[in-house]
Specification:
By secondary structure, the protein is an alpha+beta fold. The protein is built from five helices and nine strands. A three-stranded antiparallel sheet has the order 1-5-2, with no helix packed on it. A two-stranded antiparallel ribbon has the order 3-4. Strands 6-7 form a two-stranded antiparallel ribbon. It comes from Suillus subaureus. It holds the Pfam family ChaC.
């Protein structure tokens, strides 16, 4: 990632889907296999405080998720869609700074400097003319051995922890637009519960 021979590619699976980084040369919608998208990472700054951390979305290996969260299994039909952005190499340093300022992890060697993310080289699958293709991209993945990994939480508790529901609404809608035929059951169930909470709050006021 970021070497002379390799393009600087960012795979957006959260807010980067609807708010792309700057200096994008090209972008490709794609999906991952063997990973789950969950709000399973604490945020002590951008979406919470040290005393009351919020939750941010991250990627976790399906095998890791199954071991830690048997009560919240990842349905086989669920697919993690996102967008792979190829960044103009002239602006790689600027984009790395931007990702750090907006709460996205920055790589230093192989260790992430924000809340326990790591970097792995993943296969990002795309479909062109009905044919599945593979592109090798770099992607940030939450690991269960980092101090900010939360694991599975009851949907009700998680919904109460997500501070800004608009963020989740935009993510859910963006995922639907990327792949109308696919399904992300956890994301959509959480969206439904947040809408119920918002509706209740508006009635109370």
């Amino acid at each position: 990632m970021g070497s002379i021979n390799a393009p600087f590619v960012v795979f957006g699976y959260g807010s980067l889907i609807f708010k792309p980084p700057p200096h994008v040369q090209s972008q490709t919608s794609g999906f991952l296999k063997g990973y789950v998208r969950r709000f399973a990472q604490e945020s002590h700054d951008h979406r919470g405080t040290p005393e009351n951390p919020g939750r941010v979305v991250t990627l976790i290996h399906k095998e890791d998720w199954d071991r830690f969260s048997q009560s919240d299994a990842f349905p086989d039909e669920d697919i993690v869609w996102g967008i792979a952005y190829t960044i103009d190499p002239e602006y790689e340093a600027e984009v790395r700074d931007y990702l750090g300022e907006t709460g996205h992890p920055i790589i230093r060697g192989n260790i992430m400097d924000q809340d326990g993310y790591t970097m792995e080289t993943l296969h990002v699958y795309t479909i062109e003319n009905g044919i599945e293709k593979i592109a090798i991209q770099d992607c940030y993945v939450g690991r269960p051995d980092n101090p900010s990994f939360i694991g599975s939480e009851p949907l009700e508790d998680l919904a109460q922890r997500i501070w800004v529901s608009e963020y989740l609404y935009r993510l859910a809608e963006s995922v639907r637009q990327l792949a109308p035929a696919s399904y992300d059951s956890h994301l959509f169930a959480l969206e439904g519960r947040l809408r119920e909470l918002d509706s209740t709050a508006s009635v109370d006021h």
